[in-house]
Amino acid sequence: MATIVPTLFSFVRDSYKGRFDVATFEKEVGRDFDNQEIAQAINKYEQEAKNLKNKDEIRKVIQYIDLTTLNGDDTASKVVALAKRAINPIPTDPSIHCGSVCVYPQRVADVKKFLTATKQNCHITGVAGGFPSGQYHLQSKVLECELTVADGATEIDIVISRAAALEEDWKTVHDEVLACKKACGSAHLKTILATGELKTLSNVYKASWASILAGSDFIKTSTGKETVNATLEVAYVMCTAIKRWYELTGKKVGFKPAGGIKTVDEALGFVALVKDILGEQWLNPTLFRIGASSLLDDCLKAL
Ligand SMILES: O=C[C@H](O)COP(=O)(O)O
């Protein structure tokens, strides 16, 4: 049995690899979400967040953070200052560091140069692939992923085509993510669904599934630039998709809520949700990140 189970897992996983079959996709994603059930679960996570609020959990939250700046006026000195903060977010405790520093493609080389010069390590996330609108030619999305990895990004955050998603063209959503995944090489790919623009929870589940099938290492809620960003409701649906994929294939896909998460209380709501749906095994920076530009400030205040 011990040998049969992994073999079965890899058979299911390999049968999905690199191809998109519309009928199989539709069969898998044809499910409804019970809004009342989700509302009850969210209420529970918000309560649990209060119980989780202690210094140990806050220190863990700091380690989940992809410390982010995504502004038009970002400069080399600004992203280097951010990288220093990501490497040593709690000045009195050098053992703690953030998950990564997250910047625009043109600023990746600045961070890499600083890390090389100072012989320090930190994951560099580059947002690429037409972030944040996704309204670019696929060739340019792919080239942007390649250039950003060449500049030193170890993780790439791309965003799906909402145009294709809203037109129910899930094959295009899948194929674009697959092309970007190939362009990333060994860099980890986090695929942003921009859930605030997907209109329905059913679309959020379908976008999750298309992105997972295409080989995303993580799925991420939002760019931080949509009107509505990370919510516990979409997190519930996305984590349900991650769980289903794990049950089918034995493969763990990470989860990254991002955008508008500013307080420890909000962050701990996502921690409670991940713990409930995916289990403790997901609660480490390999499988769980929080994309945030200002959450660290609130964490340090609460310590
Ligand atoms: O990916 C990360 C987000 O862009 C950060 O959003 P935020 O500035 O609302 O924290």
Automatic annotation (TrEMBL):
Pathway: Carbohydrate degradation; 2-deoxy-D-ribose 1-phosphate degradation; D-glyceraldehyde 3-phosphate and acetaldehyde from 2-deoxy-alpha-D-ribose 1-phosphate: step 2/2. This is deoxyribose-phosphate aldolase. The lineage of its organism: Eukaryota, Metazoa, Ecdysozoa, Nematoda, Chromadorea. GO terms for molecular function: deoxyribose-phosphate aldolase activity. Keywords: Lyase, Schiff base. InterPro entries: Aldolase_TIM, DeoC, DeoC/FbaB/LacD_aldolase. GO terms for cellular component: cytoplasm. GO terms for biological process: carbohydrate catabolic process; deoxyribonucleotide catabolic process; deoxyribose phosphate catabolic process. The keyword Translocase does not apply. Belongs to the DeoC/FbaB aldolase family. DeoC type 2 subfamily. PANTHER family: DEOXYRIBOSE-PHOSPHATE ALDOLASE. NCBIfam families: deoC. It comes from Caenorhabditis remanei (Caenorhabditis vulgaris). Its EC number is 4.1.2.4. It is an enzyme of class 4 (lyase). It catalyses: 2-deoxy-D-ribose 5-phosphate = D-glyceraldehyde 3-phosphate + acetaldehyde.
